[in-house]
Amino acid sequence: MKKNVIILGLLFSYLFTNGQDLGEIHGDFNLNLQSYLEDASINAVAADEVIRNNSYLNILFTRNNFTAGVRYESYLNALLDYDDDFKGNGIPYRFATYSTSGLEITAGNFYEQFGSGLIFRSYEEKGLGIDNAMDGIRLKYKIGNGINLKTFIAKSRTYFTYADGIFRGIDAEIDLNQAMNLTSKTKYILGGSFVSRYQQRSNPLFELPQNVGLYAGRLNLINGGWNYFGEYAYKINDPLNSIQQENVNYASGSAFTSSLTYSKKGFGITAEIHRADNMLLLSDRDRIGKAYILNYIPTLSKPHAYSLLALYPCATQAMGELGFQLDIFYKINKGTLLGGRYGTKLNFNVSRINGLNSGNSFLNDNQDHTPILISVIDEELYYSDINLEINKKLNKKVRYNLVVANQTYNKDFLEGKTPGEYGVINSTIGVLDISYKIKKGHSIRMELQTLMAKQLETASKKEEGDWVMGLAEYTISPNWFFAVQDMYNYGNEDVSKQLHYINLNVGFIKGANRFEIGYGKKREGIFCVGGVCKLVPSSNGLNFNITSSF
Amino acid sequence: MKKILFIVLALSINISFIYSQERSLPNIEVKTLDGNSFNIQELENNNNPIVISFWATWCKPCKKELNNIAEVYEEWQEETGVKIIAISIDDTRSMSKVAPYVNSSDWEYEVYLDSNSDLKRAMGVSTVPHTFLLNGKGNIVWDHRGYIDGDEDELYEKIEELGK
Q1: Considering B25, B30, B52, B62, which one is annotated as catalytic?
Q2: Taking the CA atoms of chain A, what radius of gyration do you get in angstroms?
Q3: What DSSP designation does B23 have?
Q4: How far is Cα A370 from Cα A359, in angstroms, rounded to an integer?
Q5: So what's the ipTM on this one?
Q6: Out of B24, B91, B103, whose CB is closest to A265?
Q7: In the structure, how many helices (H) and strands (E) does chain B have?
Q8: How far is the C-alpha of A285 from the C-alpha of A203, rounded, in Å?
Q9: Residues 116 to 155 of B: which have CB under 8 A from any A CB?
Q10: pLDDT tens digit sequence for A265-274
């Protein structure tokens, strides 16, 4: 017996020391606890559970060309702003992948995007409750010089289960310069993709297509500081499952996006246009809601990070919109009158999004409508934003960021209200953000924000009016931060709603661990992170977060 | 009994030896600003340290961190040979603003695009900014979440420690 143990021990020792690479295990953890107190003044409700929890643990194992991973998710119960269907604990994400000689094989869950995502994007954005991971088989293959293929067959995750549709997809990308040994200065990249959803027919009245196909083609040209990207996408008719004749739409869908960029030292410009018509891809044609969306039409406006600039945020209308955006970046050189000692950075941004000419394409026995390709004047305005940001370092201690903006927000349309209820809100916003370095490691940062809102007199309901916001943050690098902020709706015509939304936050950071505790009142509204938005309910209470990785 | 104890001890030392080895970069491809694919494992800097910083054009503290480092980057490079890699996690909403922002800001960093967060996920990054320090062998030896004014001093101390 002893002998065996010793032999075994030696064998293990041999394996462990000489075999060397046993692989690596890494992961990250995220805990979010929130308590809810009732506050009638902001319609915040107390949760029966008192405390709610969303937590995640990711574990990845890697050895040479092999990787396997799992994610444990815990919703006990999910935070109030999450869909109720996120319920309980489980391991909804697990995968194994390996690659050999240019071929990569994944079984289980994966995230993937074809082109810019117009016909297919599977991704996660935990803060917004989005996770449409695929479950199935994916292959990626590099066919020699500059040709890449991706293909999959899979179902899409919704909450702790999978939506009804089965998806098949293939994407090919070719770098012409590499593939054909071109010596041209201009780089040409071509791509094409096809995605199809199978879902059994279940409508008693109408012949709905069981296989719905989408395809897209794209082109990317790059030359020095120039970069052009364009993609066109098409979707065959995909009527929603309804037994009401007037709701059944047999029109096909389409979308395009196009951007032209030029940049050089100290200067950059980007001009973009996009159009979407009937271009919502759902993982289950019978269900509506963000958990079922499987393509991505990015919002064509600047993602704002200051709270009053994001008070009235833009949201993409995949069913039909036309948008333009222009960005100019410029750095005024140091040593000039306006540049000062360190230079001054400017970013001018303008975006405008309107509806399609008389709405999206529609086709059935009673109706046949196809909107004009490009139509701006006389169309319903959804959103516009014109803003200028000035970023400047004054001296070794002081740095500031100044933003002025004017936004137009079609509240009735974007929030699905009755036309004429709130109408269009026009707001002028100013933000000043100053950082001051007190001494080594110690800094203070202040934000002052103001929003002045205008609403048409004809609106039947009054919007909230003017706001101010102030924030003070004290940081001690590398470990601590303390912040206090107040958003005050002083301009509300209803005096009882002239509320203060005060929040206190303290955080401790050490290397890869971060702890944060906060207390306060949040207002109901749309919360946008990384280009997607969700409605968050009013809440009042304590929250505690941990993020950590190893 | 003693022998068994000895073996257990030897084994656990072996195990801890194996699992305490430094963390390496995942086998993930990102895109360069001029449209090429790049496997992040191919990063190299002549055995000098590398800093990888995850950022986005919409992330204020990320830009503050990289702008503050940009002012001292030349000095850092001369003293330690360090190279800074900025990984943008902007998705197709804001990806086209990355090159204009980087060039207009006059950053001298190598910039890559991770537009569907594949690298972000593989490296356990849940929020940006998140900064990793790699030693001369390309292994991760330190990482830090978030950025507050002055954090670059701590990062620089860690880089200097590697040189010793």
Answers
A1: B62
A2: 27
A3: B
A4: 8
A5: 0.91
A6: B103
A7: 5, 7
A8: 11
A9: 116-118, 121-122, 124-127, 142-146, 148-151, 153-154
A10: 999 999 999 9
Cβ distance A385 to A372 under 8 Å? no
Contact flag B145-A12 (C-beta cutoff 8 Å): no
Q: Which residues in A lie closer than 8 A to residue B17 (C-beta atoms)?
A: 16-17
Question: Closest chain B residue to A531 measured between Cα atoms?
Answer: B93
The backbone torsions φ and ψ at residue A216, rounded to the nearest 5 degrees and listed phi first, read: -150, 150
Go through the domains of chain B in sequence order and give each one's CATH number: 24-163 (3.40.30.10)
Secondary structure of residue A543 in the 3-state scheme? strand
Of the residues B25, B59, B87, B123, only one is catalytic, namely: B59
pLDDT at A524 over 90: no
Chain B nearest CA to A263, separation (Å)? 5
User: Is B91 part of the contact surface with chain A (CB cutoff 8 Å)?
Assistant: yes
**A478 contacts B144? CB cut-off 8 A:** yes
Judged by a CB distance cut-off of 8 A, whether residue B75 touches chain A is no
**Residue B1 in tokens:** 């009994």
* CB A478, CB B152: distance < 8 Å: no
Of A112, A111, A136, A122, nearest to A58 (Cα)?
Answer: A111
CA distance A512 to A490: 40
The answer to which of A8-17, A134-143, A257-266, A394-403 has the lowest mean pLDDT is: A8-17
Separation between Cα atoms, residue A533 and residue A528, nearest integer Å: 4
> Is B13 an 8 Å CB contact of chain A?
no
B96 touches chain A (CB under 8 A): yes
Q: Is residue B62 annotated as part of the catalytic site, yes or no?
A: yes
Amino acid symbol at A252: S
In eight-state DSSP terms, residue B66 is H
Q: Which of B26, B127, B148 sits opposite A443 (nearest CB)?
A: B148
pLDDT tens per residue across span A200-233: 988 888 888 999 999 999 999 999 999 999 999 9
DSSP 8-state code for residue A265: T
Residue A144, token pair as written in the block: 């020699």
What's the gap between Cα A402 and its chain centre?
25
CB A410 within 8 Å of CB A382: yes
Nearest CA-CA distance, residue A289 and chain B, Å? 21
Q: What's B93's DSSP letter?
A: T
Of A289, A321, A308, A290, residue with least CA distance to A525: A308
Cα separation, A133 vs A111, whole angstroms: 5
Cβ neighbours of residue A10 closer than 8 Å, sequence gap 6 or more: none
Q: Give the chain B residue nearest A326 (alpha carbons).
A: B97
Q: Is B39 a catalytic residue?
A: no
Q: Please state, for a pLDDT cut of 90, what percent of chain A lies above it.
A: 67
